[in-house]
């Protein structure tokens, strides 16, 4: 009886390890990227605030509310984010990264990678990390699809906006791990792809 229980336990452990290795192998085949949304659902995010997030036109979008976020269910330390976003000229959006509290997203608890063409003080507008890394000249996002790539390794962060490097390996140690959040602040914001690759 004991031998059969031990054998069953070893078999279960082996099957669990095989399942894990299959998952890791599948991710490795895709370059390790995990798709959090392809514009068809919001299941990998929790919504906070009062933005009117919805799935429409193959995107996750919002166009009204005083402000809100879609916050990841998982935390990340070192990572790359690849995203595709459309905004109008009046939009205030971006991605907040390494947020320590998933219910309190803001400049004090996260880094704010901005998409905000009309920000008063354009040095922290589109392509910048607010209060950490300025951008000059500021790229413009309004009225078109944009690609925002973010890389965070230890205290270093790099931002690429539409293929142009806007922040290169800026160093800041306030936040080294946390959630990330898609922002709706104003205007029209549409996300059609958000992928993350843990490093």
List keywords for this structure.
199 residues, mainly beta, Jelly Rolls, eight-stranded antiparallel beta sheet, five-stranded antiparallel beta sheet, 13 strands, 14% helix
* Principal-axes shape call: globular
CATH superfamily of the largest domain: Exo-inulinase, domain 1
* CATH fold topology of the largest domain: Jelly Rolls
- Report helical residue fraction: 10-25%
Tell how many strands the DSSP assignment holds: 13
Top-tier CATH class of the largest domain: Mainly Beta
Residue stretches low in confidence (pLDDT < 50, at least 5 long) are 1-29
Give the tally of structural domains. 2
Overall residue-averaged pLDDT value: 89
Which structural class matches the secondary elements?
mainly beta
- Characterize the largest beta sheet: strand count, sense, and whether it forms a barrel: 8 strands, antiparallel
Number of helical segments with 4 or more residues: 1
User: What is the CA-CA span between the terminal residues?
Assistant: 45 Å
State which percent range the strand residues make up: 35-45%
What is the CATH architecture term of the largest domain? Sandwich
Radius of gyration: 19 Å
Q: Write the element-wise H/E pattern from the N-terminal end onward.
A: HEEEEEEEEEEEEE
